[in-house]
Write a structure and sequence with these properties.
Blueprint (H helix, E strand, L loop, with lengths): L1 H27 L7 H14 L3 H4 L2 E4 L2 E4 L29 E2 L5 E4 L2 E4 L16 H10 L15 H4 L4 H13 L13 H4 L4
Antiparallel strand pairs: 1-2, 3-4, 4-5
Length: about 200
């Protein structure tokens, strides 16, 4: 009787070990490539959850305050946005950062920055970008991955921590959007923004 119990314990232990090893071998060694639809869905989740539209989508005003303009999702700061001369004391380091009413442009010690058009429009958005350019831009903090610095308040230092797969999924989602023609104003350095005293 004792030998029979010992045999069953040994048999159950052996089966358990085989199952654990086979499960580990099957799941950890195979990396499954996402389909394009899965990439787009993952990218939409990351873009939405990351709050990209907070700056990159213009707002309309309602009795409850500003809400995203759903006809201009991720199209960036409107082309007709202007920045008046600003008193530099308002935005000196340790003071304030100013935003336009639709929250798509900001003024700080760096000058004035405007949220980019992230739709796949070829002339005014990311339509001519490729995946590598997008990933490089977010990894290096440089426009197009090689140009001028991406200015605040864009949190590229945080976004760069995403995996390559997540950054590529974000790009896939952005490329799936309806292209919207909107030429975002160019970055303005401090000497073009601040009032002469």
């Amino acid at each position: 009787m004792f030998r029979l119990k010992l045999f069953y314990v040994f048999l159950l232990s052996a089966v358990f070990i085989v199952l654990v090893f086979s499960a580990c071998n099957n799941s950890s060694n195979e990396k499954v490539e996402m389909t394009q639809a899965e990439k787009v869905a993952r990218g939409e989740f990351l873009i939405t959850f990351g709050g990209c539209g907070d700056c990159h989508t213009p707002k309309v005003f309602t009795p409850n305050g500003p809400v995203p303009d759903t006809s201009k999702i991720l199209s960036g700061c409107p082309s007709n946005t202007t920045i008046a001369n600003v008193d530099p004391d308002l935005v000196k380091p340790g003071s304030w950062v100013l935003f336009t009413q639709d929250i798509s442009a900001a003024v700080g010690p760096w000058g004035a920055s405007f949220a980019a058009n992230l739709t796949p429009d070829n002339e005014t958005g990311i339509g001519t970008w490729n995946e590598e350019m997008f990933v490089n831009a977010l990894r290096t903090g440089k426009h197009l991955g090689a140009g001028r610095p991406i200015m605040p308040p864009m949190p590229w230092e945080l976004v760069r921590q995403h995996s390559d797969e997540d950054l590529k999924a974000m790009f896939a989602y952005l490329k799936s959007l309806k292209p919207i023609k909107n030429k975002v104003p160019d970055y303005l350095p401090p000497d073009k923004v601040f009032a002469k005293q």
